[in-house]
Every structure is written in structure tokens, then in C-alpha cells.
Amino acid sequence: MAEPGSSLLLTVAVDNRLDHSTLPAGNDPTETAFFGSDNAGIPSVEQAKREQKLQNRPNFDFFNYAGIFRPVYLYTTPRQFIKDITLVPDLEGNVEYEIETEGQGDVEVQVLDREGNVAARSRGSKGTMTIREPRLWEPWPGTPYLYTARVTLTGEDGADMYEQPFGLRTAEVKGKQFLLNGKPFYFKGFGKHEDSFFRGRGLDLCLNVKDVNLIHWLGANSFRTSHYPYAEEMYDLCDREGIVIIDETTAVGLNMGGNGNPYACGTGEHHEQVIKDLIKRDKNHPCVVMWSLGNEPDLEHYPQEAYDYWHPLYELAHREDPQDRPVTLVCCQNDYTKDITTRTMDVVCLNRYYGWYNLGGDLDAACNGWNMELDFWAEQEKPVMLTEYGADAVAGIHQMVPGMFSEEYQDQYYERINCENDKRPFFIGEQIWNFADFVTVQGPMRVGGNRKGIFTRDRTPKLAAHGLRRRWNGIPNFGYK
Length: 481
Known about the structure:
With 481 residues, the chain is of the alpha/beta class. It has eight helices and 20 strands. It folds into two domains: 88 residues, Immunoglobulins (Immunoglobulin-like), CATH 2.60.40.10; 303 residues, Glycosidases (TIM Barrel), CATH 3.20.20.80. The protein has an eight-stranded parallel beta barrel. The mean pLDDT is 93.
């Protein structure tokens, strides 16, 4: 922090380094990239690898753009200023608040309604206010009603004021249901990526608006921030538009395919800080209804080590969140009978590719395999949802007899799997993979990136988008299960 009247040179830089100790995780430069194509043991290949220039090899299936791709802000404050605002609302209009300040001063908190009228007020850095005639934040097509907490700190050096939008909304798990505002909620949506032709992962406000409009068009209500926290501007937009978010950390790539213990790499302390930072940043957003600790770690080959790593993080997330939202961990296709971690989360979130990576091309066998696994999860007495499932479809490939990579196969894939999901009362949501095609590392499994989007990378709908639109517009947000 610079003192008044002083000069300060501030340098912001990143080196784009990824290794086994970072989140997200990367590989040693001599190792093969995720979905790589090197055949170990061939003398000429091994020699060429030794002479190859060093490369950053991510251990995840999306492109690792370099540099700083979101705005960096500098701002000034008085000597006494507002450092943090914490708001915990309930459905009766009561709002617990706590204001953290630098320096001493008088704190006043006002709650403004949508028209700018004062709906509640209080003084002091901690307390409870009650909103008269409260209106709840409901997901679209309901009304995502937002209030604004206007906090003013008046000290010897002047006044500091900050306005924090928020909504009256609760999120909890009871039995086999996910309750939003006390009502059983059904997730309809996607995993996404911050990715486009022109900006890569750079912040694109116009594209965010386009994507939210497409979510509305589809009749969807949610997405997961796979596999990192998204730009804050997207959360602000979802607050206003009534889109529900599962908020995920950067913990992707903690999986070495059984070739090493990922929990011996020393990411634990950093992971704790990542969770604290995520919750501190996003705690007041009504659109955020659940925290995801990470995506597709190895929970099968080192089951006890995995539990010892993830369960303390689960408890940490609950302690850190003043609203105590549900907490989950997204698990990949594995031997679920050996996984002792996923079943301890508040919601069982599964990434499953029956009909693509497993039993590809045979949807009868895929549905049979998926039903066998659902029988297992039915015994765990937890709400279950799919956070990834899908099939690649190259736009423009059409087949009378649907085959893999055709638009018809992708459409039938969702129709068949969703039919099985509907039979299970404990199944609380479907988030497909992916909202739109996105770029990945090069490799023989990817033709110009991942083509599992129901939209192309420029947001043109594929056949499956129309099928899902018909389905989702017929499924209500509440009371479906």
C-alpha cells in the first residue's frame, strides 16, 4: 500500500508455470501431456523427446492460455476504508452483516430495494437488519430480485462508501434433495469454459451476455465454472439474470492415471488458500449455490490418501462460508466402489461418459452400464447429479444411422441417458458437457479442440441443442423430483 504523496512502481506479471505443485496441475516438461500421443519405449521417439524444446504440459483437457486475461485495477481509498462486507440473508428478510474496516470510524448500513428506496438500515460494524415485505431471489424464469447493501464508513480522513448487491436466497441439502429457498431444485445446464475465437479466455462482456441469452433460450438454469473461478463480471450478470452457479476452484489435474500419487505433490496448503480466496470473493453472490473443491482427481488408486486430502478441505469450505452452502467434489469415471471420498460430499457430482469413452457407439450397453452404477449410488442416500456427460459432434456431420461424432448421435445420446436419469428420484440434475466447443491441447483424440459442445465455438446450435431445449423447457426448476 502506498502512502499519500509517495511514489510506487507496481509490476504485475505471471510466468505461466504449471507443475505437480500448482493448481491447476501440470506435468514435468519431459512428461507426456494430457491426451498426448507419445508411445513410450520407441528409441527414436525417446531420443527426439530429449532433444525437444521444453514445453508447458498441462494435465487437463483445455487450452492453457498464457498471460493476464482479466482486468487489473488500481484504486485509491481514504486512510479509513471498507475492507470487506459479509451478508447472510434468510427467507424472512433478516440480513446478518459484518463489515471489516481499516482504521476506526462510524459504520452505517442501508439496504436499498430495486427502486432505490431504503428497505432497512442499521449502524455498527456487525448486526442484523430486517427488510420490510421481503422479496426472494429466484432463478430464471422466476424473478432474481436484488437488493443493494450501501455501506458507509465515516472517519477522520473522510468517508468511504461501497455498494454490494445481494439477494434473499438459501441453499441446502436435506435427505436426497437440493433445496433452493426451501424447495427441491433440479439443475438443468452445463459445464462451460471461458473460451471464444477472438478473445480466447480474455474477458468478453458481450459474449457473456450472448451465453446467458442462450441459456435462457434453452430453458436451462445453471452451469458449473469448470474448471476455475470465472471472471467476477459473469457472476454479477448471473445474479441479475437468475442463473445458478456451482463455483469451482482451480484444482484440476490432480490425477496421474495411476502412475503416481497426486497427493504426495504438496498442493494441500495452496489448495486451502485457493478455497479461502474463492469463498471470500464470491460469498455474497446469490447465484452461487454450491462450492466445488475440484474436478476429476484420482479417488480410485489411492482411496485413503484421497479422503485424507479432500475431507479436511470439505470441512474448511463449510467453516469459511458464512452462508454454509453445500460443498461437493466432482469425480471422474472410475471404479466407484473404491472411491470413499465422493460419497461423503453433500451432493454426489459425477462426470460419466457411458456411450463415449466407455461403451462408445452402443447406447443400449451404455444405458445398461449407467443403470448399474446408479443402483450403487441409490444405496448411498445422497442427492446425485451429472456434472459432465456428453458426446463429440462435429457440426455438419449427419448420418441416417447415428454414429459417433455425428450430430444425430449426440442428440440420441442425451435422449437415451436422460431417460434413465428421469427414473431415479434421488437424481437432482443434469449438466451436460459442454455448452460450446472449445480449444484444447493438440492430440489424436481432439480434432480442432473438444467438440462436445451443443453449440459450436461461435455459438451456432447443433441438433442436440434443439432437443435439449424441448426437454428443459418442459422441466420446472422446482418440484421435478
